[in-house]
Design goal:
Elements: H1 3-15, H2 19-26, H3 40-48, H4 56-66, H5 71-75, E1 82-83, E2 88-91, E3 100-103, H6 106-119, H7 137-150, H8 159-172, H9 177-184, H10 189-193, H11 200-205
Antiparallel strand pairs: 1-2, 2-3
């Protein structure tokens, strides 16, 4: 019997009949890092630095930020998913294979219309070199890194950074965290609530309970 098989046998032997131990092992939690976000001014610089020709990549990065989409959701959009009447974006088969609607702002709609007038696509919103296929997530990541470098931002910036920034900036403008949860397509509220840890504008407006105490004012030392 090899070493790996022996280790597995030992593991199952000591855990057999120990449901409490198995439960503890299943509930092991690993530390989760806070998301890194861009300031609004940095997002604008990134989008403006998107490589050309045309508006394809500027539009793709804009939709990742403006609608809070994952990279995989952005590249899989079709022209018909843009609902200009209801100002919504239909996201099909997002994470967890669930459909949802994302927000469509007037400025984003204007940019997408300008892009469509350039590409005239009848299928994918962001077609690849083969118009029958969309651009890939890897390609969108590469473009984002190029734009970040051109804008003087860090190499850590990815399309998902724009999604993190979208959620944080909404929270900083007093949008309810439960609304942000729906827009992001999060199954659990605690996933969305972690953005409260990076929404610095919100933290600065919270009054400390110490301020509500009627403490005697201390004068300067004699």
């Amino acid at each position: 019997m090899n070493t790996q098989a022996s280790a597995l046998r030992f593991f199952f032997t000591i855990t057999l009949g120990r449901a409490d131990l198995a439960h503890q092992l299943a509930r092991t939690h690993y530390p989760r890092k806070l998301p890194r976000v861009l300031a609004a001014e940095q997002v604008a610089r990134l989008i403006e630095a998107a490589p050309g020709p045309g508006l394809k990549y500027k539009s793709a990065l804009s939709i990742a930020y403006g609608a809070g989409l994952r990279g995989g959701e952005a590249v899989m959009l079709r022209v018909g998913d843009i609902d200009s009447k209801r100002m919504l974006i239909r996201v099909e088969m997002g994470k967890g294979r669930k459909d949802r609607y994302a927000m469509l702002s007037p400025q984003l709609l204007s940019l997408l219309r300008a892009w469509w007038l350039q590409c005239r696509s009848r299928g994918w919103l962001f077609p690849g070199q083969d118009p029958l296929r969309p651009i890939t997530v890897r390609q969108l990541n590469r473009v984002c890194h190029m734009a970040a470098e051109a804008a003087g931002l860090g190499s850590w910036v990815t399309p998902h950074t724009l999604r993190h920034s979208f959620a944080t900036h909404l929270l900083e403008t007093d949008i309810d965290v439960r609304v942000i949860q729906v827009l992001l397509g999060h199954a659990k509220l605690d996933t969305t609530a972690r953005y409260t840890h990076v929404a610095t504008n919100v933290l600065r407006t919270v009054m400390s309970p110490l301020e509500r105490l009627a403490l005697p004012q201390e004068g300067p030392p004699a």
